[in-house]
Design goal:
The chain is 59% helix and 8% strand. By secondary structure, it is of the alpha/beta class.
Length: 233
């Protein structure tokens, strides 16, 4: 049987108010046994502390710091345009899990490992990324409206994969694998604790949803036998 039957994956735009509302509504309606979010421990703590990296700090940290700084600036600018701070849909998931009193799991890959992989990108992809990052300081309207972004994300992902095959593998495919494995572990742990039909809601970026669902659907489900079964003296 498919692990996907136990997990409802919500694909969000990290800077969309509609995504925040969908997250709250879905979790409260589904009343899952657990909630999982696309964060690791470091980003979770930084988000709760509302900590932002200054350019001076990024420069001291070298390439990894600069990559992190640019990515944060991109999301910050989108958040201003869309009327929501980056990460608000994750905060909503945390709050909803607390309201229901269910466990919260951090399922994404460690940010330091992600940044190390980005820093090891081929020179061509680094150069293209540096050029495109200049657009962070240009008006977003030059690239389209928020509704266009929501509707055309599949095209954007295909373009990103074509321009940045290595980064696509690192930022999308490998993280999909990590998050799918973690979701499978959550389901297995709930079943091992006696939950016959575990229900998990996972909140991830829109670009990760299809890949994670495919991996969950393809994974072979483990069969758990209650301790009283199959044990003879």
């Amino acid at each position: 049987m498919s692990y996907l039957r136990y997990v409802k994956v919500i694909g969000t735009m990290h800077v969309s108010p509609k995504s925040r509302e969908e997250v709250i509504r879905t979790i409260l309606e589904e009343r899952p046994h657990a909630v999982a979010i696309e964060l690791d421990r470091a980003r979770f703590l930084a988000m709760n502390a509302n900590r932002k990296m200054a350019l001076e700090e990024a420069l001291r940290l070298g390439k990894r710091g600069l990559i992190n700084y640019v990515l944060a600036k991109v999301e910050e600018k989108l958040g201003k345009e869309f009327g929501m701070k980056p990460g608000e849909e994750m905060r909503a998931a945390i709050s909803a899990a607390q309201t229901l009193g269910v466990p919260l799991y951090l399922i994404d890959e460690d940010i330091n490992l992600i940044l190390a992989k980005i820093a090891a990108a081929p020179p061509r992809e680094k150069f293209l990324m540096a050029l495109e990052s200049l657009g962070v300081f240009l008006p977003l309207g030059a690239y389209g409206s928020p509704s266009d972004v929501m509707g055309d994300y599949k095209v954007m992902m295909m373009q990103f994969k074509r321009r940045y095959p290595y980064l696509y593998r690192v930022l999308v495919e490998e993280r999909n694998e990590v998050m799918a494995r973690n979701l499978i572990s959550i389901v297995d742990s709930l079943k091992a604790r006696g939950v016959k039909r575990p229900k998990v809601v996972a909140v991830v970026g829109l670009g990760h949803k299809p890949g994670i669902e495919h991996l969950l659907n393809s994974a072979k489900e483990k069969v758990f036998i209650p301790p009283s079964w199959g044990h003879y003296r």
